[in-house]
Amino acid sequence: MLQVVSIVGALAVLAAFAADQFGWVHPGRLSYALANFAGGSILTTVAVVEGQFGFILLHGAWTLISVWGAVVILRGGPEPRTGDG
Predict the structure, then answer these.
(1) Residue-wise DSSP of 8-72
(2) Whole domain around residue 12: which residue ranges?
(3) What is the mean pLDDT of the chain?
């Protein structure tokens, strides 16, 4: 059952990434941040249950960064970027 939960979390993160890469969603959208948050939270929980410290660090940071992104979006969004870098 834990494997199924892991796959659901991974699919949420991968779906957000693929949607960004294919131009289907802008990473500044709330749906992007929430998909990353949901997937990262699930994968962090599984890593904690399994005692996988490297994955706890990776997915825990992914989740916290996603929460930060969602908060920024909900507060009015990040400043628009100009240029390529």
Answers:
(1) HHHHHHHHHHHHHHTTSS-TTSHHHHHHHHHHHHHHHHHHHHHT-HHHHHHHHHHHHHHHHHHHH
(2) 2-74
(3) 90
